[in-house]
């Protein structure tokens, strides 16, 4: 019996049979749980604080971009006003009326001077349920539209107040379309000076119109064309610079 008793009593390690050891393990567990709770709380606070800082920085950046665009617009208007003043002085310097008229026609054709006259207004916009690039107007779509209007007999065109010339770039910059390196937002309003009586009908016969009818039917983009109720006033191209000069 003594051997059986010894085997029974020695089957477990002493620490497992010790009630003192079980009592001392509970405070360790409590401390571990407390430390874990502290770490989780610290992580939550850091994440919340980081999100708030990121939102503040993003808003500050958006405000700076908005202010820079507004300043850019003011400077462009100022430059256009000074260009008009310079051209007026150039007109006054020419003594020959024929040369003045030739200069006026060239400035109108190149977008170097502001123009006014009858025409049509074309407004295009993204599809109401546009997602990613599906249903969005792209730079190539605007280019086809503009080329169709030139082909229909447009004499001068502006997009959201930006005058177009043969040198005006129309590009994509992220999700925005830039005209003459200025970002524009939809809807895009094109003011077109020309013979309003047949400009729209002639445009409908161009490849640009065919492309836009395809976009409207298949991708939900919208396009409206209406005759201007009064004369349109288009500014000069603010980005126009003198590249060549020849003495007379």
TrEMBL record:
Transmembrane portions of the chain: 27-45
Keywords: Membrane, Transmembrane, Transmembrane helix
InterPro entries tied to this protein: DUF881 (IPR010273)
Transmembrane helix listed as a keyword: yes
Name the UniProt record assigns to this protein: DUF881 domain-containing protein
Transmembrane helix keyword on record: yes
One GO CC annotation: plasma membrane
Pfam families for this protein: DUF881
Family, as annotated: Belongs to the UPF0749 family.
